[in-house]
UniProtKB/TrEMBL annotation:
Belongs to the NELF-D family. It comes from Anopheles christyi. It holds the Pfam family TH1. One of its GO terms (biological process) is negative regulation of transcription elongation by RNA polymerase II. This is Uncharacterized protein. Transmembrane segments: none annotated. GO terms for cellular component: NELF complex.
C-alpha cells in the first residue's frame, strides 16, 4: 500500500486522477471499503507532505464535473504522464485514463481541449510499436473522437478526419473504421455541413462496402434530401 500511496502523491495531477479513480471505484462491490481506506491514506500522506488537498477533495465531491479534475487529466495525457501506447498491451478493455477522458467529454466546455489532445496523440509516431499495435492504438483514439462526436462535437471531428483523408497520409483502414463507427451512431436528418464533409468518405468505394445497409441508407438519404 505504501508504494501506491507514494505513487499517487507524486504530484498534483497524479493525486487528482488517483483520487478520482478511487472515488469512481469505491461504489463497486466489496472492494469499496478497502478503496476508501486507501483514499484516506493517500490524503493523509499528501497532507503530511504539505500538499494542498482541500480544493481537490471539494472538486472530487462532484466527480469530473469540475474543471480542476478535467484539466488535471488532460494535462497528464498531454505530457504523456499516462502513455496511450500502453493500450497495445491491454487487450479487450478500454484503459482507465481514456475511460475518464470519455467522462470529461460529456461536458461541452472541454471538447476543444480534448480534440486537440486526441489529434496530437493520433499524429504521434510510435516507432517502438509493431504496425498492428500502432493501428490498435489509433483505433482506440478514433473511438474517443467518435465519442466526442456523440457528445455534440460533430463538425470538428468529421472535419479533422476528412482532412486526414484528403491528405492521403492516414491508413485507409483507419478511415474505414471511422466511417463505420460514425454510421453506427448518426441518424437522419443530418445537417448540410455534416453531409458535405462526410458524404465523400462514404462515397469512396475504396473505403466502404457499398452493399452495406448503413452505407446505402446514408447515401440514399443524402441524395434525396440534400
Amino acid at each position: 500500500m505504501e508504494q501506491i500511496v507514494k505513487m499517487v502523491c507524486n504530484g498534483k495531477n497524479t493525486y487528482v486522477v488517483g483520487q478520482l479513480l478511487f472515488t469512481m471505484s469505491s461504489h463497486k462491490g466489496n472492494a469499496g471499503l478497502l478503496i476508501k481506506c486507501l483514499s484516506q491514506e493517500v490524503t493523509k500522506y499528501a497532507q503530511k507532505n504539505n500538499h494542498d488537498v482541500i480544493p481537490v477533495i471539494m472538486a472530487l465531491n462532484g466527480s469530473s464535473r469540475y474543471p480542476q479534475v478535467a484539466d488535471a487529466l488532460i494535462a497528464m495525457l498531454s505530457r504523456n504522464g499516462l502513455d496511450v501506447a500502453n493500450v497495445a498491451l491491454c487487450p479487450g478493455r478500454r484503459p482507465t485514463h481514456l475511460a475518464l477522458l470519455d467522462e470529461v467529454a460529456s461536458h461541452h466546455e472541454f471538447h476543444g481541449q480534448i480534440m486537440q489532445l486526441l489529434m496530437r496523440l493520433f499524429e504521434s509516431h510510435r516507432n517502438e510499436l509493431e504496425a498492428y499495435e500502432q493501428l490498435k492504438v489509433m483505433k482506440i483514439l478514433l473511438d474517443r473522437m467518435v465519442h466526442l462526436l456523440v457528445c455534440g462535437y460533430v463538425l470538428p471531428v468529421v472535419k479533422y478526419l476528412r482532412k486526414c483523408y484528403s491528405r492521403c497520409n492516414t491508413d485507409m483502414s483507419l478511415i474505414r473504421y471511422f466511417v463505420k463507427e460514425v454510421l453506427d451512431v448518426v441518424t437522419f436528418p443530418y445537417s448540410k455541413e455534416f453531409v458535405e464533409l462526410f458524404l465523400p468518405l462514404v462515397s469512396d468505394s475504396i473505403i466502404v462496402d457499398r452493399n452495406s445497409d448503413l452505407v446505402s441508407e446514408f447515401i440514399v438519404n443524402c441524395m434525396a434530401n440534400y
